[in-house]
């Protein structure tokens, strides 16, 4: 699927990107916001990036961002057992709104506020912003949702936060004006559920990823090398990091490239740590590498393994999966709705597993290894189309078309 870049028709727009999840190089926040920056820059658009106030200087330099925002999408302002959710939304929303206005000065109707990871904190900030501004000064809002904290992790039913999502969305829709707010998500499953939660249309947009050429560069050939399996990104318990010692035992004949979590390997591996660390077939990379080093290491792999629990985050996308497909890698992934959606479109090459167990994951890996040459060839063929259709640039162009900013834009 390809898209056409039409000439940008108005030059007086400013895109204010609330990158309050950007604190360091770990996780998806930096990559997604870098993708937006590259896309906006390539289209000649004026941007202002606002990172978390604790953001590392190095990531602020990459984004050319000001470290000013007091709350991330995950932070709470209250732990009160009865009113904590509402109090957190109220305090975080007001504070983020104040941070925004102090940082960018006057906001007006030509501005667009862009948020790639929207939670209740950012919704309440937008609600407050619209309340403070006169109708003629209210900016357009582009609110993309990637997290599913409006659902219970245990049951998958709406959580107490869902009522706050709906309330804020209703106030935003009432105060923003016709076709001046775009709610979006990056998987069909998320779109369907979120629409029921907030009560307003949600558009399906591509995942806002950037794919620098270093990511899909061909690594130097290694004679007689065993296949290399990469387990990369910001790992955690739900992402199956504790399974790796057993997976390594069950999968002889491969090399492993493993990125250490922020809280270290020993927390997950315990007594198995020496077995992994001293294994000659295992290379462990430090967490939070600079992007260019991360992409260089990524390019060394043949297979990217994402041993995640599909029941923990049912609706979400995966940045590592997207990078793997974009770089022409074979992927082993859980059978989440988003993964299966793209499998049905023949958009990627690899294997899925059903449950997050060492047996299930290792069986999927063995199936992939048994036909690795064919899978690798297919993965390389599919990669260019993925880089085009599932990218930050396509994400931005779809937003521009929604707001009819292109001279030949397509309006819904």
Tell me the strand order in the biggest sheet: 3-2-1-4-5-6-7
Largest sheet: 7 strands, parallel
Q: Could you name the CATH class of the largest domain?
A: Alpha Beta
Distance between the termini: 19 Å
Gyration radius, in Å: 22 Å
Helix content: 40-55%
Could you list the spans in which at least 5 consecutive residues all have pLDDT below 50?
Answer: 1-9, 407-412
Q: How are helices and strands ordered from N to C? A: EHEHEHEHEHEHEEHEHHEHEHEHEHHH
Q: State the domain count.
A: 2
- How would you classify the quaternary structure? single chain
CATH topology of the largest domain: Rossmann fold
Average pLDDT reading? 91
DSSP helix count? Answer: 15
Q: What share of the residues does DSSP label as strand, in percent? A: 5-15%
Strand-pairing-aware structural class: alpha/beta
